[in-house]
Amino acid sequence: MESWRLLVSSADSGARNLATDQAVAEHVRDGASRPTLRFYTWRPAALSLGYGQPLAAVAVNLARREVIDLVRRPTGGQAILHNDELTYAVMLPRTHALAAGGILRSYDRLSAGFERGFAALGLDARRGDWTPSGSDAEGLLCFASPSTHELSANGVKIMGSAQTRLGGALLQHGSIPFAHDSRIRDVLRLPRVTRLRGLRDLLSPAPTVGALIEVLATGFAEAVGVGLLPDGLSADERKRRDELVVNRYGCESWLARR
Fold this sequence. Notes:
The chain is 32% helix and 24% strand. With 258 residues, it is an alpha/beta fold. The strands form two sheets. Strands 7-8-9-10-6-2-1-11 form an eight-stranded mixed β-sheet, with helices on both faces. Strands 4-3-5 form a three-stranded mixed β-sheet.
């Protein structure tokens, strides 16, 4: 059985979280680190924009008054306000069997790896059958935008994910909200027409962050047939993370895509 690293990170800022994902992906690509399944949370809350989303859509001054980090992901998709949630990331070499067949096929394989974990919580998580309860004319909100590849349960989108290829690395990461921070509509200047729902609306009581990590990691490992060994970042990964914070994810030029 193939051994992967299970990396559970402490809550961190938006720039450091995204820099960590890229640093790990690069080291996995180069064979310096094993394939990795990472879980993490955010402090303070952070609004992450998809790679191609315009910063002009954001009420930047309001976000900063509300102490909300503003960051841009290396992956596509729509905006997410990361607060009361768990985020996962998968990093693989591009030559790995799970990465074969292009982005959509590998995206499906990896997302399906979490279905077993959600099933252990009593949620019948499925791909491709989600119909949003409302509409978002701006198309800016990840959890108000339909996708045939993301996971839903009882009509609620429970995991929003995106994938990119960083040279020879695959990086897929995604958000699993316990509850949605309503400030996202003000920060994106959107009408308050749809109440977004999370795990707390589907499970009573909802699992703790630690319990959710355990059940999702176990289900993922069983579904894709790997062993997970808990470990931390290497010294080289920490160094590269810090470089990426300074040179990319913490830069106004990256945020504004100038």
